[in-house]
Amino acid sequence: MAKNLKTKSAANADDKVVNRSALEQAALLLTAGFTLAALIAAIGYDFSSSRPLFVILVPLIFLVLVQIYRTMKQGDIETSLNVIKAALGGQIVDFAVSVKFFMLLMALLICIYVLGHYAGLMLAMFYLIRVHGGESMKMSLIVPIITALALFALFELVFSIELFQGQLYRYFAGYRIW
Amino acid sequence: MGILDGLVSGFAQSISFEVLPFLIVGSIFGMIIGIIPGLSGHFAMAMLIPFLYKMDPAPGIAFLLAAHATVAQGGGLTAILFSTPGTGQNAATLLDGPPMREQGKAGVAVGAAMTSCFLGATFGAIALALLLPVLQQVVLFFGPPEIFILSFLALTFIAVLGKEDMTRSLIAGLLGLLVSMIGIDNVTNQERFTFGLLELYDGLPLVPVILGLFAVAEMFDLFVKGGSLVDKQHGTLSAGQTQKQIFEGIGIAFKKWWLVLRCSAIGTTIGIIPGLGSAPAAFIAYAHAKQTSKSKETFGKGNIEGVIGAEAANDAVEGGALASTVAFGIPGSSSMAILLGGLFILGLETGVDMVTTEVDIVFVMIFTVIFGNLIGTIFGMFLVNPIARATSIRSSIMVPILIAVVVTGAFAAQGSLFDIVVTLIFGVIGYLMKILNYSRAAMLIGYVLGHAVEKNLYLATQLKGTFFFLSPIPLTLCLISLGFIAYNVYGMIADRERQ
């Protein structure tokens, strides 16, 4: 039993290394693409403006290529492609959870844009605590309300910083310019 | 401003009603962040950066630096009580802190650790004050060519000496420099990588980049890992017994003053070198304490000298790190890079001006480190048990609260929703860097140094022509950089051949 558990955890660790290697390869290829595009763009700039870019980009592209070579040596492309496919298909748990969190943050941004800072934050916090965290209804209501009140006291009262009121408020307040 | 004038003015400002409340709040905040595993000094500073826009220089510096100064104290507490270092820099405390707790001497270890932290920080701060006259002279030799090459030397040190892989760290540092080039070039008015977006004309804003790289990235990590911040609680101490033991620990730390002094000197020296930071300093000091101890065999089994050595070095690092940051504008760690960003926001410029005309500000930093640690020690001594409960907060509650604070901070800095977008994008980048072992510190330092690199490259070529790097000091710095990289590459190849 103990031996089986050990083998299973070793296999999980191996999977994580392979996943990380595939993720790094994908990230490096993306970085290589961006840096090459930046180099091409820099060629069109005034020389004084492009000189520091060349100082940065030339060694950067070289190092990115070296790192791509190093990661390619560690794992073959076919395995990496399979891992990426599995990740995009939602089969790699950590990746799926990270993507979910990113989507939640994007949803929070949209909520703030439409409903305003406090309402958007409270809604997102309630969702995270109640639905994702599985906490009690009491806790899910108290924590967002107290946080919003504390932020209001700190930013609006102490530092006199007005937070975003949201498009909905602006619309009803008479703003029609988008 | 003379050094004596600066000292008096700095002290008066530090204890004034305008500064002291911020110093106290910053210290307590830093301590709580330090106690929570996974959240470190740069996180504490990143969270406070948005508030600086509305603050004067002295309270702003006290607020920011006090939070950073007490993080190691909080981290030491968690390392001893829960066998989980609150921050990476407290890893060495794990060697003897938890064994002491198991022997029923947790309070002694906490008291000794807190006092050593305070004494170490005081030593580092005094060392910085003593270094000031030297720095005032040395900094005059550093013009644009020297600062330009020094920036690359700092990045090289960070890449080579940091805990991450060298190639990855160099990539991160250069990416940071590249990101800092976004916006309109001040010299030629050339738009660079702005994609026509008005929001990017002034470059990427500092606060969202810092918050994204360090705060949001940690949120991703906490969200993915889930659960409580500390897996196992080993039972908190009873209040009465704890106090008694803590005072005993304080007494022992003072009795071992010679050990504290030596380990603090190790910490301060290491702090001056960019890229090494607190963790290696603590381990080196621990090794030194063990080597010079009369009871070497008890190290690792609960020897208080192990706790004292590691914690003293931990906090003494700050004095050394501050020296290179304020004198040359070259931050040696992510926390110092954030501090440098904070100084920009407060309208202060590092370098010659800082160490010659704004000496009072340097002394505000020095007194903040000392007072901050003193407040942390007092606060920690009396509130060990309640503070330690912060570690049992579940991430399902902690993450939403921190997200709310981070998003609000990102918006409040400039009142722009675009800044929240930048924060989230850099949060993803920071998280990717964290899991792929790319140095976020190197990226941030590259980003913060970007402006200085560009300005000094332009000035250097105007003043000394294309081959400015052949002047004596830049050439020496260039050779050190190249030699350092070559030596490490050679070491890596030799290791591989041996395997």
Provide the β-strand percentage band of chain B.
Answer: under 5%
* Distance between the amino and carboxyl termini of chain A: 64 Å
Q: Which structural class do the helices and strands of chain B define? A: mainly alpha
Per the principal axes of the C-alpha atoms, what is the gross shape of chain A? flat
Instruction: Report the helical percentage of chain A.
Output: over 70%
Mind explaining what this structure looks like?
The complex is a heterodimer of chains A (178) and B (499). Chain A has two domains: 87 residues; 80 residues, no CATH class. With 178 residues, chain A is an all-alpha fold. In chain A, helix 1 packs antiparallel against helix 2, helix 4 packs antiparallel against helix 5 and helix 5 packs antiparallel against helix 6. The longest helix of chain A is centred in the N-terminal third of the chain and has 42 residues. Chain A is flat and about 55 Å long. Chain A contains seven helices and no strands. The termini of chain B are far apart. A two-stranded antiparallel sheet of chain B has the order 1-2. By secondary structure, chain B is mainly alpha-helical. Chain B has one domain. Chain B is globular and about 70 Å long. The model of chain B has no long low-confidence stretch (mean pLDDT 81). The chains are: A mainly alpha (178), B mainly alpha (499). The interface between A and B is large, with 60 and 51 residues.
